[in-house]
Amino acid sequence: MTADTENITTSAPRKYLFSKGIDGYFSDVYKAYKFTGRFFKEVFKTPWHFGEVINQSFEVGLRSLSLITVTGFIIGVVFTKQSRPSLEDFGAASWLPSLMGIAIIRALGPLVTALICAGKVGSSIGAELGSMKVTEQIDAMEVSAINPYKYLVATRVLATTITIPILSLYCIFVGLLGSYVNVHAEESTSFMIFYKNAFSTLNFLDVFTSLSKSLIFGFTIGMVGCYKGFHASQGTRGVGKAANQAVVLAMFLVFLEEVVIVQVSNWIRNY
Amino acid sequence: METPKQHTIDQSQSVIDIKGLYKSFGDMHVLKGIDFNVFKGENVGVLGKSGTGKSVLIKLIVGLLKPDRGTIKVLGQQVETLREKELNALRLRIGFSFQNSALYDSMNIYQNLAFPLTMNVKHLTKADVDNAVEEALEAVGLKDKRFQMPADLSGGQKKRIGIARTLILKPEIMLYDEPTSGLDPITSAEINELIVEVQEKYNTSSIVITHDLTCAKETCNRVTIMIDGKFTKTGSFEEVFASPDEKIKKFYSYNFIQ
């Protein structure tokens, strides 16, 4: 046997179960499942890197705070302005604070915060880890006996899971403030009465669902950003692709989760 | 500062022992039956064209990749069978200098060096870390760069800092991936000197992956040539390049024409 024929027989050509594309898709889904599952395994193991979680939480918070302030306030103003004529037609303008309370707390606050964070934080995590991956910084950590998943992924996912619900509460507050400014401009309602009315129709389930939703969105955004960054390839082009895919996939999953959570919470409410 | 150890090559003791190593990526067969060893205190150069699997070899040694077939014994431990904890303990005894240095670009030089130390060694005081960083920077001659960011350094300085980062954990084995690639001849010569200094001062055993013949000649006690996923010839630099094998002759002449 010549050297060349011996080389060819070292392993058989790859065979696909269905096709390269379909096999690749299922392999990606399995990889994502394993990557997510690993978080729950690693997060309870020492060392916990509290310092890095706090650093990342500040990063997430500071990166999105200004945009959430502006967007939350504008949404409060605009939604109030747009809803007023319809309610006035039915002589129900006094219900405006309650309507805004429901809209902002149940849906808009968590959703707007998640979408802003998916754009700002998800892309930034995807690009940062992607760049670390293609420049072998992640390998450098691994060969230094540092668990890169624990140090880079677990800390970032924890940071987004903790910080995004806090940002969501802040967005709700700013959104209601925007709404109050609009209501106050039309009719001189006091701040306290507005807030009392806004919360009057809400119950524990609304607040609980809103916070749980933010928690899930935060986890999703962190995990998607880390997954896309961790699996970046093809140099700088791969970094851009990872950042872009992190935003698109995170937004898609956030909408999907929103639909499921709304269905589940409605089912619980009716039950 | 620790007294430098006397450098000796112990030919009775292999620190790296590889047998029948195969590695493929999909349909691409990269390593096709590698047998290889490194003695204690020895620098071995692995030469070959780009894309022949030289870097794959050292990534397999350090457990970043898994082999398809074959065994890799490092410091008496079979790498491919180690659990995560055991592998990490072994990795602490191996220094890996990456081709592009792989410095953490969000950290300054001090933090880059202190990071592996503080993450792996418990109960260190700030003074311990400062001293270790200073010693490692002194070993590579870049004491004044401690608070600069990696982006502010030249290619040669980055390579030196990359080596300093591995030295901070006092490794027994050093793996250099293309230590002189992309550097001018003067900086390359400085890196070559540094590799020899590290071998003498820390009594390390090393694998130097390179396609730079000057680097191999200056830094290695033995060299081996990788052609088509196999080691074609191993021996001293002079022995290998005195070989009548056409492929080796071609490699030699191209390198010097360049």
Structure, described:
The complex is a heterodimer of chains A (271) and B (258). With 271 residues, chain A is an all-alpha fold. Chain A has one domain (49-270). In chain A, 84% of the residues lie in helices and 0% in strands. Chain A contains 9 helices and no strands. Chain A is elongated, with a radius of gyration of 23 Å. Chain B contains 9 helices and 10 strands. Chain B has a domain at 10-93 and 171-255: P-loop containing nucleotide triphosphate hydrolases (Rossmann fold, 3-Layer(aba) Sandwich), CATH 3.40.50. The longest helix of chain B is centred in the C-terminal third of the chain and has 18 residues, at 185-202. In chain B, α3 (109-120) crosses α4 (126-139), α3 runs parallel beside α5 and α5 (155-167) packs parallel to α6. Chain B has helices at 54-61, 84-91, 109-120, 126-139, 155-167, 185-202, 213-219, 237-241, 246-257, and strands at 10-25, 28-40, 43-48, 69-74, 77-78, 94-97, 173-177, 205-210, 222-227, 230-235. Chain B has a 6-stranded mixed β-sheet with strand order 6-7-8-3-9-10, sandwiched between helices. With 258 residues, chain B is of the alpha/beta class. Helices cover 38% and strands 27% of the residues of chain B. Chains A and B meet through α1, α4 and α5 of A and β2, α2 and α3 of B.
